[in-house]
Design goal:
Number of strands: 18
Low-confidence stretches: none
Radius of gyration: 21 Å
Order of helices and strands: EHEHEHEHEHEHEHHHEEEEEEEEHEEHHE
CATH architecture of the largest domain: 2-Layer Sandwich
CATH topology of the largest domain: Dihydrodipicolinate Reductase, domain 2
CATH superfamily of the largest domain: Dihydrodipicolinate Reductase, domain 2
Number of domains: 2
Distance between the termini: 38 Å
Mean pLDDT: 96
Strand order of the largest sheet: 16-17-15-14-13-7-12-11-8-18
Shape: globular
Helix content: 25-40%
Structural class: alpha/beta
């Protein structure tokens, strides 16, 4: 495909993630135009018009899909709408970039993946934290074998802020619309990231979830609403490479903003990742391997065994002509969409389906009080 041909994008779901991430990053791409948007909210559509200059606005995604001159749609809706919108777009032969988690459940995710594969649709899932520079470096170090045989993986992605119990309720607190709460919303990112880092699949899980605030005041209606998705979930996992894993996705870490951390240990080394320090990584590596990187804080002592290294500029994903700006994963999807030859972008619907399978197995494990083996 010619790099100069303009790709035309439609946005389905015009709320926060569309305005903060999807539309701005599409508009950063050369020869890409966001030409239409759809949402049930008039206020959200007005934001699309006034902030981004999008003129074709719809309340029904089916009307947007009937435009006939789109190349790609970006799905930014509540989770219950991912499946119907994606399946309709697949029928139209459109490329699809979808928010995570991919669907409400594994059955939907599998059907979406298989339908897209059968028609050769170019798909992407917005596991956006893969683009964090420190995450890129962690993957490089693990893939190099510098940590030896991986034995332990632990990852937490949590939020909470202050007075969590007073936060208003939304569709994320309704199981029929969200599928999962903290374990699926936050946990999906770290389940995907660890699979990407380790290049290994989870083979068994057990899990535990809790709802700590059973009722909230609805942001939409101002009335009390019942909470039916978990505030917090924890998963224990076994990996195909022999590693043991632990994940926590939570909305209730009081005092924490959106905070993602991970630790990986192997037979020859280890690393500690903190997304709030996106340009550095704490590592325990052989001296010869450390020489490849710029050291920010030296370790190697009994009290401070870990050394802090700087992410090399080649992994920072800086955008030319935008000082301090970084590439978004969505921009990688556009590059892959245009590239000649087989479509190789990851995370695609396949990776989204694999994460959904882990979440489904975790739910089953908790409901039945046992370990559940994968694949399902």
């Amino acid at each position: 495909m010619s790099a100069t041909r303009t790709l035309r994008v439609g946005i389905v779901g015009a709320g926060g993630i569309a305005q903060y991430y999807h539309v701005p990053y599409f508009q950063r791409c050369k020869n890409v135009r966001v030409v239409a948007a759809c949402d049930v909210s008039d206020a959200a559509l007005e934001q699309m018009r006034s902030k981004f200059g999008i003129k074709k606005l719809f309340h029904d995604y089916r009307e947007l899909l009937e435009m006939g001159d789109l190349d790609i749609i970006s799905i930014c809706t509540s989770n219950d709408m991912h499946y119907p919108v994606a399946m309709a777009a697949i029928e139209k032969g459109l490329g699809i970039y979808c928010e995570k988690p991919l669907a409400l459940n594994f059955a939907q995710a599998k059907e979406m993946y298989e339908a897209a594969k059968a028609k050769g649709i170019k798909t992407g899932v917005n596991f956006s934290h893969r683009r964090t520079p420190a995450a890129q470096l962690a993957r490089e170090i693990i893939a190099s074998g510098a940590l030896g045989q991986i034995t332990y993986v632990a990852a937490v992605y949590a939020a909470g802020g202050t007075k969590y119990a007073e936060h208003p309720g939304s569709w994320r607190n309704i199981r029929e619309r969200a599928g999962f709460g903290g374990m699926g919303d936050m946990g999906a990112h770290i389940i995907d990231m660890m699979r990407w880092w380790l290049d290994a699949d989870i083979t068994a899980v057990t899990a535990q979830t809790r709802i700590y605030v059973p009722e909230r005041i609805s942001r939409e209606t101002g009335q009390p609403m019942k909470v039916t998705t978990e505030d917090q979930g924890m998963i224990l996992a076994s990996y195909s490479n022999g590693a043991m894993g632990y994940f926590c996705g939570s909305y209730i870490f009081t005092g924490r903003g959106y905070d993602q951390r991970a630790e990986i240990y192997g037979s020859q080394g280890g690393l500690m990742y903190n997304q709030q320090r996106p340009y550095e990584l704490d590592v325990y590596l052989e001296p010869e391997i450390l020489k490849r990187y710029k050291v920010l804080r030296k370790g190697g002592t009994p009290d401070t065994p870990y050394t802090t290294i700087l992410v090399p500029e080649r992994l920072m994903g800086l955008i030319p002509d935008e000082p301090g700006a970084q590439r978004g994963l969505l921009m990688d999807y556009i590059d892959a969409y245009r590239a000649e030859g087989p479509f190789t972008f990851s995370p695609s619907f396949y990776e989204g389906m694999k994460v959904q399978e882990v979440l489904e197995a975790a739910r089953l494990a908790e409901e039945e009080g046992r370990w559940v083996t994968l694949p399902l």
